[in-house]
Design goal:
mainly alpha; 5 helices; 85% helix; flat
Length: 149
């Protein structure tokens, strides 16, 4: 029982810290600094802050779910140790990593081939696209391997 409480408290601490950091980064990215060096990175900082807000909110949601229903925590812990599920997750993560690395390399080659400078907005969309495609490959691989194995 003590182990369950420490796991719940870990979720609360992780969720609170990530939520606070995310809000801080999001607000920092929203402020328009007069320094020209910061201007291209404001949207990136804002995006990272939004990501942390979502992850922190998810951890807090898990904390309240596990606090309300401790059986769900025990069930999630048992399912997380299933070897078949772990193998599927590792293999899907490997596929997503390969896709992300290949996309990054190909886009770096294309940027190197162009002789014009790219706008920071275009770079932002390219990076966001790489993240979305990598996540989609992971989810598709999970679904595919769940059906096969």
């Amino acid at each position: 029982m003590n182990n369950q409480k420490s796991n719940q408290n870990t979720e609360l601490i992780k969720g609170g810290v990530m939520l606070g950091l995310g809000i801080l980064l999001f607000i920092t990215g929203s402020i328009d600094f007069n320094a020209a060096a910061w201007t291209p990175y404001l949207r990136l900082i804002e995006g990272i802050g939004l990501f942390f807000v979502v992850v922190g909110g998810w951890n807090l949601l898990q904390y309240f779910r596990y606090k309300k229903n401790p059986v769900a925590l025990q069930k999630a812990r048992i399912e997380s140790m299933d070897e078949r599920k772990l193998w599927i997750q590792y293999r899907s993560g490997n596929n997503a990593f390969k896709a992300g690395i290949c996309l990054t390399y190909l886009l770096l080659l294309m940027v190197g081939a162009t002789e014009k400078p790219l706008s920071s907005d275009l770079i932002w969309w390219i990076l966001a696209g790489i993240v979305v495609v990598t996540g989609a490959v992971y989810v598709v691989s999970l679904i595919r391997y769940e059906n096969i194995y």
